[in-house]
């Protein structure tokens, strides 16, 4: 048993470190269960009686619809980009990641603004066909359209996971299959798709969690998912949401554990890589592929960006206001610190998994990524309750941690560790462990081996991970709103304020634009490093 | 070289972090002689900042603000308990104010001198919260629409308005307060019938915000909408010509003028239970109700001043004077949860 848990190598120091970190990340979540004592609450009973089924059905519908769109957009382009050579391939390879910088709520608001009565879609028609033209209107304020818009924002999760997986597939397998007479489509479905399946699944998991967590877009379209249910419970009595949150937590946790056992039995390792030679095609096909691969980033990035630029052109004065500048600075510094910590924690967990090959280490890593599955608002309350519970009566530590943004940063880490973990895991699994193994057998300590050998190999991926986590934090809203300190704005909170309170996408546009810009710059800078690496 | 670069980035961010902490502690009680008020607010308007700066100047005080959603802020006040740093809770809806009072979050304050100029249904009978500004939930209709049978909220259920009403979701706090007012005046059964009747007359399942409801009339999808005067003001002064046209295409109708009056909601708040700055907080509420500040609210935010005798902005005044429903707002706050439940029972999404 002991051997099963600890594995062959007993680097207890590393194991204890991983155990401590995981406990620190998991323990606050237990405070969500506080709410279970409140089941007799009549507001909760009301929600169960009148809404619960509808909320669950809507959530499932939204998840399935958005996942379908994210897969349709993300999977084929990942395959095409990894397999074929076509014009603008390198550019599009990066460009299709960029929609990740557009928060779902901004995507939904921008697209509904484009198609609104006073929106660009109508204005463009009037401009082209003259003022007397009876413009053609599309009512996009529908559930199905929302799935599409969320898909535009979320497909990069599927795309990036699958791209990495397609890229490391053994090309000789494909050649063998082709020489045996299997056509391109057959090879895709019978050979490549099964191999990419684990990566696809983790992409889908990320999309699912994003959809469940979204509040802003759903509320505007009045699509009531379980998150809307929690919000209504809060409206009826801010305390009655805690019971529902506890139920949601138990549901997610059970599902998460099931997924763990399912995942670990189905693990496919395919670490063999061969030369990354891309296939050549006829000119016509190449151009066709370029066109096809460009569609997702056009819809998910270029179109919303153009619309926001247009809207922001009416708010140029905002750009020079001091509030604007302070807000940019706040957001940037608030995003980078937790992103770096997330990566450090991820590296410790992964490295522990590698040197202590036991099931326990693997489980610890899995458990510490649970936070991503739990809606941000629930995490924020749990973290607050956790710190206050252990603090002195004067709550000095709590106040310090709010003022120094430590609590906020901690909550970000808790929530976004999964993003860091999933992004880095692929790179970490891909590196060959023969060299570090040899170094350690020659007497080098694990720490030294890590810094001298493992880290330099995965450094490019580390930078990408910092970028991806940073972008997620920049977009984050519910945790930021709950744990902010006095006199503090971020790009996300101001964007929300303008869209929701003033109901003006135009007022929000400079902030939304900057939010996307900062994210984009982060992704480009760090991805550029990865490409070079 | 690269290592050095990463090290520098780390160092820079950490030092930025620490300078932020310094700046922040300076704005709080410690290390600063200025008397300080900490406010949790769900009013996200630039005018509030302007007014707070004025107060700071006039009283030599410092005001710190956390802006968030009411439900979150209440949760935070609850969790922080006696250790909270917040002195004042402000919000833009009486339902949340009532929840704060019911949870025992407020302490009684000496009602400000200026309260004498405020109608008594706009503040709490126990003196724990006061209203600062008002908004009216009005009916608007297309200018070319025959609205001769449309006088009261209750008329919205008439079969002749089938498929013509645009209104937003039950999640909207102003809809919740409107229904609470109908429960207060007509009773629960009648209110449920009203919900069902309006649902039957909606042109589509509720979506979007108040601005969208007005635009639905502008393009002819709907003929009638229930909206907040605050957003009408914003539409009329928008720099988007289409939005102005949309606002000009509708006629404002103040409902229930021959009986109880049009439903209004308040922005307001109170002093939190564990605040040690009661006196300064009272000064702030008195200041917010002063003629000067009330004028500022009216002119720049399209709200109705709570103080009698202060004129509304020109934009708002053009819709004419109207009779307000003087049901005590504390009663309306109390019925908020019941209103949400009635929406669910009546099928209002």
Brief write-up:
The complex is a heterodimer of chains A (533) and B (349). With 533 residues, chain A is mainly α. Chain A has helices at residues 2-6, 12-30, 42-50, 52-83, 89-95, 104-114, 120-129, 143-167, 171-179, 184-213, 216-221, 226-236, 241-265, 283-312, 322-355, 359-368, 376-390, 396-403, 406-430, 434-441, 446-475, 478-483, 491-501, 505-532.
Low-confidence stretches of chain A: 265-274
In percent, how much strand structure appears in the residues of chain B?
5-15%
Number of domains of chain A: 1
Would you tell me the overall average pLDDT of chain B? 91
- Helix-strand makeup class of chain A: mainly alpha
Radius of gyration of chain A: 24 Å
How much helical structure, as a percent, in the residues of chain B?
A: 40-55%
List the keywords:
heterodimer, A: 533 residues, mainly alpha, 76% helix, B: D-Maltodextrin-Binding Protein, domain 2, 9-stranded mixed β-sheet, 14 helices, 9 strands
Fold and architecture overview:
By secondary structure, chain A is mainly alpha-helical. Chain A has a single domain (10-32, 48-273, 282-312, 324-532), classed as Orthogonal Bundle (MetI-like fold), CATH 1.10.3720.10. Chain A contains 24 helices and no strands. Chain A has helices at 2-6, 12-30, 42-50, 52-83, 89-95, 104-114, 120-129, 143-167, 171-179, 184-213, 216-221, 226-236, 241-265, 283-312, 322-355, 359-368, 376-390, 396-403, 406-430, 434-441, 446-475, 478-483, 491-501, 505-532. Chain A starts with a helix and ends with a helix. The model of chain A is unreliable at 265-274 (pLDDT under 50). Chain B contains 14 helices and nine strands. Chain B has two domains: 30-133 and 266-317, Periplasmic binding protein-like II (D-Maltodextrin-Binding Protein, domain 2), CATH 3.40.190.10; 135-263 and 321-346, D-Maltodextrin-Binding Protein, domain 2 (3-Layer(aba) Sandwich). Chain B has 349 residues and is α/β, with parallel strands linked by helices. In chain B, helix 5 (173-186) packs across helix 6, helix 5 crosses helix 14 and helix 6 crosses helix 14 (336-346). Chain B is globular. Chain B starts with a helix and ends with a helix. In chain B, strands 1, 2, 3, 4, 5, 6, 7, 8 and 9 form a nine-stranded mixed beta sheet that branches. At the A-B interface, helix 3, helix 11, helix 12, helix 15 and helix 17 of A face helix 1, strand 2, helix 3, helix 7 and helix 9 of B.
